[in-house]
Q: What sequence folds into this?
């Protein structure tokens, strides 16, 4: 079993040596094992070192034109990660790395979206990421989109075009990604960013997890805002339950043409919600898990039909 604590943090620039030393100490104090950092502000042709004895592995994507933007991923020395591929963005907006963590294949993506055109930027990045990803995907960063609606009761939340959040969530649904923190805290109100200009709070930072790997998500926390204007967001992932290989599955649509099968599926889904819709299970997890139950039922019915067809063919062959 491999347990890893991932932490995402918009650090608002780390060019000052004293701030880098303080940040590295704080990363270790907060027990971050794999760090996703945004706004490092390192210039590509003159980037300072951010590694340390505790974080010997560092991967960077710096803006080539100025000391702005920039993302980095740091890995603690005790984390058994070996990088095999890395993809950088010359504009300092994203960084993809993939390799092995223990005996598991993993892809890590660190994103820092612009404050305008977020959905277009995210779509472009996720398209690239889709072709890069192998194994489990951990995608974290500062998305510059309020992830909670203004109706959810966060104090002094900013007024934002509601279509922005709606289009953002539609993109996540399209790529089967789930807001990890919100999944574990569906009714909690919290924030990761405070704007002193607008005097408003919002939750802009999170980790995105593919819905078929939600069972690996064990914890998610938001720490207080301290030396940056963003709060660090952490998740804990357990890798023991991830299969080494992932098989794709496609629905046999002919099964749905049978009225008896449709009724059997409807009864199974109804029974699932009756047995599992309890206060201990969050609504997003309940919904995602029901898809697994439905898929398992369809696989079972399909396998049964296949056996029946084979038996019928065998009987015909014998009769001939």
A:
């Amino acid at each position: 079993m491999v347990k890893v604590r991932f932490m995402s943090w918009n650090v608002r620039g780390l060019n000052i040596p004293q701030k880098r030393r303080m940040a590295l100490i704080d990363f270790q104090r907060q027990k971050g094992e794999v760090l996703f950092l945004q706004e490092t502000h390192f210039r590509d042709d003159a980037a300072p070192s951010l590694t340390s004895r505790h974080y010997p592995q560092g991967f960077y994507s710096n803006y080539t034109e100025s000391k702005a933007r920039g993302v980095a991923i740091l890995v603690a020395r005790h984390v058994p990660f070996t990088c095999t591929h890395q993809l950088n963005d010359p504009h300092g907006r994203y960084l993809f790395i993939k390799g092995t963590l223990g005996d598991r294949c993993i892809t890590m993506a660190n994103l820092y979206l612009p404050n305008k055109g977020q959905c277009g930027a995210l779509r472009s990045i996720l398209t690239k990421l889709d072709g890069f990803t192998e194994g489990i995907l951990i995608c974290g960063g500062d998305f510059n989109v309020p992830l909670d609606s203004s109706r959810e009761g966060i104090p002094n939340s900013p007024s934002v075009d509601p279509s922005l959040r709606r289009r953002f969530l539609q993109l996540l649904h399209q790529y089967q990604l789930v807001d990890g923190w919100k999944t574990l805290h569906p009714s909690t109100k919290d924030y990761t960013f405070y704007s002193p200009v607008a005097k408003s709070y919002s939750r802009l930072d999170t980790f995105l997890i593919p819905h078929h790997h939600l069972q690996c998500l064990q914890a998610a926390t938001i720490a207080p805002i301290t030396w940056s204007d963003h709060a660090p967001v952490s998740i804990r992932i357990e890798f023991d339950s991830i299969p080494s290989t992932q098989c794709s599955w496609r629905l046999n649509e002919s099964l749905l043409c049978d009225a008896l099968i449709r009724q059997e599926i409807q009864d199974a889904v109804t029974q699932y919600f009756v047995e599992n819709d309890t206060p201990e299970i969050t609504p997003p997890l309940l919904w995602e898990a029901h898809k697994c139950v439905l898929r398992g039922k369809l696989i079972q019915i399909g396998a049964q039909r296949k056996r029946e067809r084979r038996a019928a063919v065998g009987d015909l062959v014998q009769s001939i």
